[in-house]
Amino acid sequence: MKSLSLGFTNQSKNFPDLPIQIDEVPLLALETFPTDSHTKTHLSPEIFLRRDSKGKFIPNLYLIRDDLLPFGFGTKWRKALGIIEYLKSNRIKQVLLWGAIHGNYLASFTYIFRCFEIEVETIAYTRDPKLKTYNEQLVRGHSHSIHCYANRKEAYAAWFEKKERYQGLALPEFGIHPGQILGLKEFWENLKKEMEICLKGKPTHKGQEESEPTEKGYGIDTTPPNIRQNPQGIDSILVMEIGSGATFLSALDVFQETSVLVLGVMVGEPKVEWIGKIESIQRQLGLKTIPIPSEQILEIPSQIPGNGQKTDLPIEPKKKSISFGKNHKTITEWIADFYRNTNILLEPVYSGITVYPLLREIYEMRDSAKNNPVENSQINSGKDLYAKQNQFLRRNISGELVPVFYLHQGGQIQHLDLILDKDSK
């Protein structure tokens, strides 16, 4: 794997610097998809890339490696450190948390707060008292006091009652608080610079002098209105999951006036329901209540194989959808294959659910380019750039596929068994 850049944030002189590392995903990752018999003559990714010098058929794909931060807590480090900055500024020394005991949120926040000598009181819940996870051990091991309930409703009621008389900071579920933005905003600003390096110095905010392409045939911007963030279009795409929504909304807040298109993938909640909460979450985070184009919020369909429809996620025949927190055999097997080819560990709740369909789009576009010379000639002539609408991929007004940056937010520590069992055999 090629490591392109290593930058450092400077959130506060009291906090450790958090690196920003961006890795280019090797084309070998495309070989994690099975090759059907009628496509055996397809060019290998390496050979195909040499014939794709202008990015017309395979986009550059980069991973922002927040998964490499300690314990795989990922972007939650940045959120938690922002809240710690708020706590220190207001001389608050204790926090009240609540959430799922097996979730990444409580595991990361209890550990990080405890490391900074903040007293942690935790109210948790689990629907399966027999389930034992590494996240649970972290929560129990780093909470100064903890009460665990049998369901979410009871846990919330206990938290709500206690927060009314709590002397410290009572954080709502997932830690939604303006302090998270303190930790994320500077991350985005530094990330802009690192993305520019990957794009060979091309600025993410284009100047007026670049508004009219000079190459013949590309004078008209054919970018669909729903992704036209500025008159000059986009030059990079930033992809991430939408869990609580804090990371996604803060990214939109920072990148809205740039040529970076931010796309969020729904995980665990229907898109239509989360859209109704956007304004409320923005207010809780202290962000501007800006409207979010629906097209920038992706909902990856998961359809039953064999029903005549395209299958976007590898699910078992009797499964109708990918459920939050559920591991499915086929997706976990694909994650193991992806790890062997790239040395990048995804997990089946967030990153695997996003990277699989993203790579599938690239894989299918590569194969389509090999088998459809008519379509290729249209792309080469600058026509019909959006004849086929993709979930993730976009072309610029020159017909080139826009580079994609995926933010790997971590969370893989609880899924090490996906690779350890296989490697030990």
UniProtKB/TrEMBL annotation:
Annotated stretches, region: Disordered: 202-226
Presence of the UniProt keyword Iron in the record: no
Composition bias type Basic and acidic residues, residue spans: 206-215
Nucleotide-binding keyword on record: no
Cofactor(s) essential for the protein: pyridoxal 5'-phosphate
Alphabetized GO MF terms: D-cysteine desulfhydrase activity
InterPro entries in alphabetical order: ACCD_DCysDesulf, TrpB-like_PALP_sf
Keywords: Pyridoxal phosphate
Family, similarity comment: Belongs to the ACC deaminase/D-cysteine desulfhydrase family.
Name of the protein described by the UniProt record: 1-aminocyclopropane-1-carboxylate deaminase
Organism name: Leptospira brenneri
